[in-house]
What does this fold into?
Amino acid sequence: MRMQLCDSLLARSSNPEMVFLTGDLGFMALEPIQAAMGGRFINAGIAEQNMVSVAAGLAKQNFEVWVYSIAPFIYARPFEQIRNDIAFHNLPVKLIGNGGGYGYGVMGPTHHAIDDYGSLLTLPNMSVYVPVFDEDVGAVIERAGGSSRPAYIRMGRGEHPKGYNVPLYAPWRQLTHGKGPVVIAVGPLAGTYIDAFLHIPIESRPNLWAVSELPIDLTPPPDSLLNQINASSVLCVAEEHVRHGGFGSDLLLYLAGLGVSPQTFVHLYARAHNFGRYGSQKFMRLQSKLDVDSMLSALNRNVHG
It folds into this structure.
């Protein structure tokens, strides 16, 4: 999604109050922004804590501030500065983390950003955006940029099947329609299930939803989704994030507040930072049983017993 990110930020760069900071990353992608912004494009170096504090200071002076790095470096390393300098003061700094989830799988457990949005959503005022498709990035940048809240944008790689007609961006979108169980996936992971679900007869095909904005109380699920959950025997949540503090538990708490109780709840999640071996994002998803076959097996066990 880096090229779409570059295009979207470039479209905003004529604003003289916009500032872009990078932690010495983004090369071979963000050079057009650097050329357009000149001195307002700041390479802060490998000093993420300082970069976030500088971003907070700029936002306090009413600049429009965007901060970029790979996901593990933008939320984990400067967490204290995000909490103290940005969140506590409700400053509208936009943190962009590339390679969320197992996106940097080959780099090992230190680079697995599978506890990112859960950690950041413990902070006051924080919003999270998780684009599902490459085509979503422009709308996400526009929505985040127009918000007065601090935000974390978890970038990944769009993975919809060839020929699939990507629906217009919305915080919640239904990607497949059927009469089977309800499946909700966070961000790009949702795209990996589309093709397999479309090959299931409509009588048992899952209703696949993708969620792109958190926390839930800021962008509640639509009534059509709640009606499907009430009518279905199985609700399955899939997320490339650890179980504790993830979307699954937040969704159940939200549903409990509405008096909605799924008959059967299935949760697929990132099971570990380190399995003893590491590899590509696809390999790491397989280890966590987030892959398509594991999804189909989990649904089959819980729908048909």
The two ends are 39 Å apart (CA to CA).
